[in-house]
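This part of the workshop introduces the protein records we will be handling. The structure tokens are whole numbers drawn from a learned vocabulary of backbone shapes. The record below serves as our worked example for the rest of this section.

===
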Amino acid sequence: MKYINLRFCPVCNFNNKLKLSKMSKQTGYLNKKIDVTLNICRSCSFVFQSPRVSQKYLDKYYKNSKNSSGQTFFFKDDKSYKYGLNKKRVEFLNKIIKTKKKKKILEIGASTTDFLNLLSKNKHVLYAVEPSKQKINKKIKFFNQTFEKINFKNKFDVIACFHTLEHIFDINVFLSKILKIIKDSGYLFLEVPNSLKMGFMTIEDYYPFEHMSYFNYENLKIFLSKYGFKKFKIDKKDKVNLRVIARFEKRNVNNYF
């Protein structure tokens, strides 16, 4: 199995040599033992995995493992944690964006499409990206492939990504592609674990081999700003996750790109 080393911080490009910690764990996938090595950027405090498993290995994992989609961790009913979580996401979106007007909305890493199912009542045009096999809602255009490999023919008003960004092998490639498919003045709706608040999770659960990145609000803002995202709105009611909506303005894209 191939490992890839990152020398520079993916957020601020600072050259880091400091190691935060190292763990080994059994993944239950392909019976491989994965070494997890974490680095903390001395400039922006971004925590990232390096060395990390290859993109090819991750793609195979997300396509074939039922554990990767999130569907095994929650029961699907209107009293479950997952239903309540998606309801909060919809409420937060409605506060920031006037969603009564018909919009094109894409969710990346849509899992069982519960968030989009709630939005389908508002008659939006809905799209889902999910590499694992799922039951398909006919109201949702479903891409059963990894995001980076899809050739989109549309641009979107809202792109949502919940607990997916931390799994992405190369977050800069990922955001560069988002720039190609988001409308000017469109919105990026992100939710990631907060690296400063582990909540009820154990260290082993919080640092699995699938998590490439760990954000706090400040370095998430640094990262998104260089891609032209401004006017950040954070859901302060959530004490564990970082739930953020940012508006894209093409004129603000960093000249680095």
